[in-house]
Write a structure and sequence with these properties.
Helices cover about 25% and strands about 25% of the residues. The protein contains 7 helices and 14 strands. The strands form 4 sheets. Strands 1, 2, 3, 8, 11, 12, 13 and 14 form an 8-stranded mixed sheet that branches. Helix 1 packs antiparallel against helix 7. The longest helix has 24 residues. The two termini are about 25 Å apart.
């Protein structure tokens, strides 16, 4: 009976603390996201349009020239990721769809084996296993094969790697099979916006290209980023290799392995999104990470600085 009473007092204290923190932070609950944890999304009701949430940070390699390689489907020697993460569908030789979840153990092996068979058949559409990579590796007609094949980088130090796109387009003048069209995960700090995330603050909706301030409560490190890619609708908490490295205070070697990149993930990160503050509009064209740093720092200062962001850290997590 006493333990139950203590639990009730603690729970009530958490509610009061969360309410007080929301007041100091000046953000109110907008909604819960559709991820398993029901991550809370907070919005500003006055001042600078802004959105706040706190979750983990998994590393998203999309946009990196080394992301996927046809001869390294498991990411053991050449690639920064395993090819199962780039596959949206698999079919057996009889044309039957054979997708499975979660992609671990035997299910993971099924994706890898199907990819290898499709690759070795030179992407034959009949009589052999097939894969689809919608939104993760573009395809184009291969005149030599007489059918579609995944796009690969055609020249330079990363020749032969698959083209790895991002939803945010850096250079629309480049074709879909040109890696320079997309945001480079190794160069730019960027966070992933879940698909169909209708998050708004003061009538400004979060969109790709908007500035984001990201902070590690544990170390206090702050990094400036943009929303640079779209992820699964029921997932939240991803960032580029460059962003994870910045929050870790580490440099990433050009020859970093898949295992080293995965190890950059963080378990606890604050995200502050500024809807309507698109980097392309702010720089009136091409931009660099230095531009993101400058514009992001100015926005954070106007919003209330690290002091206010620290107050927001007291908001109750899922």
């Amino acid at each position: 009976m006493r333990m139950k009473l203590v639990s009730t007092i603690v729970a009530a204290g958490m509610i009061v603390q969360s309410s007080a923190a929301a007041s100091q932070c000046s953000m109110s609950l907008l909604k819960r996201h559709g991820d398993p944890a029901g991550t809370r999304i907070y919005t500003a009701g006055t001042g600078t349009p802004s959105l706040y949430f706190r979750t983990d940070l998994d590393v998203n390699t999309d946009g990196a020239s080394r992301s996927y390689h046809p001869n390294d489907p498991r990411g053991q020697s050449l690639a920064l990721n395993n090819i199962a993460n780039a596959i949206s569908g698999i079919w057996n030789a009889a044309g039957q769809r054979i997708d499975c979840e979660p992609r671990r153990g035997a299910c993971y092996t099924r994706y890898i084996d199907t990819f290898i068979a499709a690759r070795d058949s030179q992407w034959a559409t009949q009589g052999s296993p097939r894969v689809a990579t919608n939104g993760m590796v573009p395809w184009q007609h291969d005149r030599r094969l007489g059918r579609s094949a995944p796009c690969t980088i055609q020249s330079g130090p990363y020749q032969g790697y698959f083209v790895s796109p991002t939803a945010f387009i850096v250079n629309p003048a480049k074709g879909e099979c040109d890696q320079s069209r997309y945001l480079d995960s190794l160069t730019f700090n960027a966070a992933v916006l879940p698909k169909n995330a209708l998050w708004s603050s003061l009538n400004k909706r979060a969109r790709l290209g908007d500035l984001v301030v990201v902070r590690s409560p544990g170390s206090g490190r702050v990094a400036y980023a943009i929303l640079g890619d779209a992820g699964p609708a029921k997932s939240i908490g991803e960032g580029t290799i460059a962003l994870a490295a910045a929050l870790r205070g580490q440099a990433v070697s050009p020859t970093a392995s898949y295992r080293q990149v995965k190890a950059l993930a963080l378990a606890d990160v604050q995200y502050l999104v500024f809807p309507g503050a698109g980097i392309k509009a702010l720089t009136n064209g091409p931009f660099t990470q230095s531009d993101i740093d400058r514009e992001g720092a100015q926005l954070l200062e106007r919003w209330g600085g690290v002091q206010r962001l620290t107050q927001c850290a007291s908001l109750q997590r899922p």
